[in-house]
Design brief:
CATH superfamily of the domain at 3-204: Aminohydrolase, N-terminal nucleophile (Ntn) domain
Structural class: alpha+beta
Radius of gyration: 24 Å
Strand order of the largest sheet: 2-3-1-9-8-10
Shape: globular
Number of helices: 25
CATH topology of the domain at 3-204: Glutamine Phosphoribosylpyrophosphate, subunit 1, domain 1
């Protein structure tokens, strides 16, 4: 088992851990993994207690110590790199209190501690591909690789954060630094936590910047981008052609990575692709174009409706927080297919849209901006038309009303306004008690703060920065890494390599989106690598045909409607049940596509049943009724 698939929990402060934490020696209480590796317990220095599973490595130089998970760019080997064998990271921290992240690249998380246990530092990588969670408990600090381990320590009450649930209902994930549990937090991407024995302070170790200071002619910029991409991606190649492979959707990112790696290898590279039977969702024809063009050893699987039904409970158990992105399902089947073919490392194309300018939202935002800045008469006509259609609940009318509404908003509000499910239906959907605990604009505050932090001049770069922090670090990376971990597969993300992200920040915004042309410079740089059909392909994404499945009323529709309309879901007191029934009716009559909303609601309910209800049930049992062997935390 590799380091990146391991987990850890560190308790800093108490002389000895509470007796109940002995239960953590049971692997069944740890996050699910493809391998049943034992739990190791250690006390490397006084007042520091460590539980670890998998190839989590404890390091030290005598004056201090730490542990870490890391997958460096393989550079010829698919094995996870040894974690800082020279102790440079620990030594730098002991010497001047600095986390020596310049020694590191790829995926990592670290926890470091002083010999007296009174100082500690925890860090996550640039895009939080190895997450770190923390909670202050009494006079001590819990640090973990997974939120479940903090819950299962028994040191933090399992109170669900309504603020986090509200954010989830807007974004389909819980954005950092929030977690679904009150009192616990997660480190934002590229951030370190410093602990002085009494309080926590956060410090940013790396961030994306957009100086746009590359003044070279376009031909030179094309060549420099091409060489930087080739050099970066080739760093992630493996000497073992059988033990690794690539995600291949047939899009520009996965195809370019597969092509570059195939050119660097004598043996055919394994590629893994997912398709669907439903029209408009299957990208296998494009992945076949890429695999034939590059001479890949292609592996394919078509995900069915019944496959989705079977995977949903497993995936709820793979994510420690509610995670409502339904594309986790094909991601899980893709990584499972890879594992079945002996692959332990997959190379993914995530991040390409957000650094090269490929997200369809960037082009749409330019259209919205043109309406937003149009003459007053044009804007007035749009508002009048939307007003005339106010009482019409059809797909066409709703699209017009949605466009006019979004176009009247400034950024960043309009950029994620399509994701503002709970904000949009604040009064109608949420119960009075829920509304009293949050504000309708709370979700906007998250993106406004990130948008304001962007070190960028161009509006496009501010939006790309927002996407890197939210769409990538809080959503896509979580989706891919957790689904792959459940299958027992590591994932590398070359398009999230800091060197490449730093380079693209130096390019002008017009090199990313020029007019309505997305990925302008990238397509020119990859002109001789990507087949023409791939370069000109319309972006489709990695979505499921959930809308179709809900319309036809099969196993997926029965599962979701049964969950969201259940008495258990209603008893949580979050929602107006009539509103939920209305969502189903609107979807079925074609007024709007609520498939993503209903999937998100179902996952939230399943998450409560998996993680919260078992604890509550045990706490409600009288001591005499409790089974002797019952664990203090919920079973996985």
């Amino acid at each position: 088992m590799s380091a990146i698939l391991g987990d850890f929990l560190v308790l800093i402060g108490p002389e000895r851990p509470p007796a109940g934490m002995a239960d953590l020696s049971d692997p069944a209480l740890w996050p699910p993994a493809a391998s049943d590796s034992p739990v190791r317990q250690a006390m490397p220095v006084p007042h520091v207690h460590v539980w670890a599973r998998g190839d989590t490595r404890i390091i030290g130089d005598g004056a201090a110590g730490g542990l870490g998970l890391a997958l460096e760019p393989p550079r010829g080997s698919a094995r996870a790199a040894a974690i800082d064998p020279r102790g440079a990271v620990v030594a730098a921290w002991v010497r001047d209190g600095r986390f020596a992240h310049e020694h590191l690249s790829g995926r990592y998380s670290y926890v470091l501690w002083s010999v007296d246990g009174k100082r500690a530092l925890a860090c996550t990588d640039a895009f939080r591909t190895c997450p770190v969670f923390h909670a202050q408990v009494g006079a001590g600090l819990l640090i973990a690789s997974d939120l479940r381990l903090i819950l299962r320590s028994g040191l933090l009450a399992p109170r669900v954060s309504l603020q986090a649930v509200y954010q989830y209902l807007n974004f389909s994930y819980v954005p950092a630094p929030l977690t679904a549990i009150e009192g616990a937090a997660k480190l934002p991407a590229g951030t370190c936590l410093e602990w002085n024995g009494a309080r926590v302070r956060l410090r940013r170790q790396w961030d994306a910047r957009y100086p746009e200071d590359m003044a070279a002619p376009q031909a030179q910029r094309i060549e420099q981008l091409r060489e930087t991409i080739l050099h970066t991606v080739r760093d992630y190649r493996s000497a073992d052609a059988q033990g690794w492979g690539t995600f291949l959707s047939g899009g520009t990112d996965s195809s370019s990575i597969s092509g570059i790696l195939s050119q660097a290898h004598d043996a055919p590279v394994n590629s893994f692709s997912i398709g669907f039977q439903e029209d408009g969702y299957d990208e296998l024809p494009y992945s076949r174009i890429a695999s034939q063009h590059f001479g890949l050893k292609a592996h394919e699987y078509r995900v069915s409706e019944d496959d989705a039904v079977a995977a949903l409970p497993k995936l709820v158990g793979a994510y420690d927080e509610p995670f409502g992105n339904s594309s986790a399902i094909p991601t899980f089947y893709c990584t499972t297919l890879a594992a079945q073919n002996g692959v332990t490392l997959m190379v993914a194309g995530d991040g390409g849209d957000e650094i090269f300018g490929g997200n369809e939202r960037y082009r749409k935002d330019q259209i919205f901006h043109r309406f937003h800045t149009a003459p007053a008469s044009v804007r007035a006509f749009g508002k009048t038309l939307a007003g005339v259609l106010k009482g019409v609940d059809s797909r066409f009318a709703n699209r017009i009303k949605n466009f006019v509404h979004r176009a009247t908003l400034p950024n960043p509000d309009r950029f994620y306004s399509d994701d503002a499910f709970a904000s949009k239906h604040f009064e109608a959907m949420l119960s009075p008690a829920f509304r009293a605990a949050v504000r309708a604009d709370d979700a906007l505050d998250v993106q406004r703060r990130i948008y304001a932090d962007a070190q960028a001049h161009a509006e496009l770069h501010r939006l790309m920065y927002l996407d890197l922090k939210m769409t990538i670090a809080d959503n896509d990376v979580v989706k891919v890494a957790r689904a792959a971990k459940l299958a027992g597969v590591e994932v590398a993300f070359p398009y999230l390599d800091r060197r490449l992200v730093d380079f693209t920040g130096r390019l002008p915004a017009s090199d990313k989106v020029r007019g309505l042309d997305k990925r302008h410079l990238f397509k020119l740089a990859m002109n001789d690598i990507l087949p023409e059909a791939i370069r000109k392909k319309k972006k489709q994404g990695f979505g499921l045909p959930t809308s179709v499945w809900l319309q036809r009323g099969g196993s997926y529709a029965k599962l979701l409607t049964g969950i969201v309309l259940s008495d258990r879901a209603a008893a949580r007191g979050y929602f107006n049940p009539d509103f939920i029934r209305g969502l189903i009716e609107r979807h079925q009559n074609g007024a709007w596509d609520h498939a993503a909303d209903l999937h998100m609601l179902a996952v939230l309910e399943l998450w409560h049943r998996e993680y919260i209800d078992p604890i509550t049930e045990r706490q409600n049992m009288a001591p005499a009724q409790q089974p002797q062997a019952a664990p203090r935390a919920m079973a996985a």
